[in-house]
């Protein structure tokens, strides 16, 4: 294949371009570079008729060349049919680093559909996940799974990444449209779109998305929030999601995570929750639940402290801090023993329906 010079006006964009929008400022910057240094990388096109061509790859450069006022552009002409061009164009484009996760997800979905796999994105993502589990256990794949696995290998992207892209376009169209309308800096962490797809209730999904945006949650916090919000009793969940009450994510991998309300917001939450007597027992702001939350925080702090003490020693004798630090009234107990007691306290609080006055002051 040789580089040719083709009139810009004779070229049309690919209908298989997954990019939803082109940033005008970025195009103008590239146009300025093209004016000064010319087009350094030729675009890739195919013949569609007499003196007419269609872009396979390089639409952004073609658009910038028009901004720069170029009449002709360097291009490599490739001889491929519609079906092959569609797939090659999509694969080339989803490898661009500046393409948004949703755009990549839509591009990947089109690749599968062009290859004869017509499934909903969430269903396809679930199958890809199942394929990876089977392969890890050396289990055989059924014909449809084999075809899907073959397509994944042609895309040259990890199957787990393809699954995340597909899950990102499984969320509510309202969320997708909202994210696409934002600048790159305003969008939520991409992986959270995948996590939101695990919420089957669309209304809850949208409310959870709004909470993540309003609270400006980090990727880690938002991921834990999505996992836990489905477990929160309905009455409190509605208040947390719609009344602007702030939340905290408490716990770690060992303890598990839970959604907690800052102490100074408890009264606010109580005012906005309207429940009957049966539901009232499940509301996490009852005293016993506040005590449980305190125990969970205490155990988390013990775990973190023990990790820190691995590097801390007495500056006088050099002995580990673990052997020297003691509780005021329980000096014969080591920190490890105290942590174990904290764990027992949490387990006890999880079973009790009333508070222990030693650990909870109203």
Walk me through what this model shows.
The protein is elongated. A hairpin with a 2-residue loop joins β3 (43-49) and β4 (52-57). It contains 16 helices and seven strands. It has 362 residues and is of the alpha/beta class. 52% of the residues lie in helices and 10% in strands. α7 (159-168) crosses α9 (190-196) and α9 runs parallel beside α11 (219-229). The strands form two sheets. The protein has a five-stranded mixed beta sheet. A two-stranded antiparallel ribbon has the order 6-7. The model is unreliable at 275-282 (pLDDT under 50).
Biggest sheet strand line-up: 1-5-3-4-2
Top-tier CATH class of the domain at 3-81: Alpha Beta
Please give the alpha-carbon distance between the first and last residues. 79 Å
Beta-strand content estimate: 5-15%
Mean pLDDT: 81
Q: What ranges have pLDDT less than 50 throughout 5 or more consecutive residues?
A: 275-282
């Amino acid at each position: 294949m040789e580089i040719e010079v083709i009139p810009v006006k004779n070229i049309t964009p690919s209908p298989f371009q997954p990019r939803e929008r082109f940033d005008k400022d970025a195009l103008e910057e590239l146009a300025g570079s093209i004016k000064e240094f010319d087009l350094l990388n030729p675009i890739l096109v195919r013949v569609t008729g007499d003196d007419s061509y269609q872009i396979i790859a390089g639409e952004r450069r073609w658009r910038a060349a028009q901004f720069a006022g170029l009449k002709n552009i360097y291009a490599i002409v490739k001889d491929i049919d519609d079906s092959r061009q569609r797939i090659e164009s999509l694969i080339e484009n989803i490898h661009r680093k500046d393409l948004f996760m949703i755009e990549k997800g839509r591009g990947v979905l089109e690749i599968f559909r062009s290859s004869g796999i017509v499934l909903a994105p969430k269903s396809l993502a679930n199958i890809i996940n199942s394929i990876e589990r089977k392969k890890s256990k050396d289990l055989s794949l059924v014909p449809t799974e084999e075809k899907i696995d073959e397509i994944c290998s042609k895309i040259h992207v990890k199957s787990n990444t393809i699954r995340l892209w597909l899950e990102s376009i499984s969320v509510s169209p309202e969320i997708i449209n909202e994210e696409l309308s934002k600048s790159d800096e305003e969008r939520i962490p991409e992986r959270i779109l995948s996590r939101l797809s695990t919420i089957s209730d669309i209304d809850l999904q949208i409310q959870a998305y709004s909470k993540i945006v309003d609270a400006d949650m980090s990727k880690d916090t938002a991921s834990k929030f999505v996992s836990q919000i489905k477990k929160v009793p309905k009455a409190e969940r509605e208040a947390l999601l719609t009344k602007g009450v702030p939340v905290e994510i408490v716990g770690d991998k060992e303890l598990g995570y839970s959604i907690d309300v800052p102490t100074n917001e408890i009264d606010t939450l109580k005012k906005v929750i309207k429940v009957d007597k049966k539901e009232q027992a499940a509301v996490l702001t009852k005293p016993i639940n506040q005590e449980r939350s305190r125990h969970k925080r205490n155990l988390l702090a013990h775990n973190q402290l023990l990790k820190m003490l691995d590097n801390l020693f007495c500056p006088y004798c050099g002995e580990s801090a673990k052997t020297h630090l003691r509780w005021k009234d329980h000096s014969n107990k080591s920190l490890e023993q105290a942590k174990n007691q904290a764990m027992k306290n949490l387990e006890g609080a999880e079973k009790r329906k009333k508070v222990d006055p030693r650990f909870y002051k109203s």
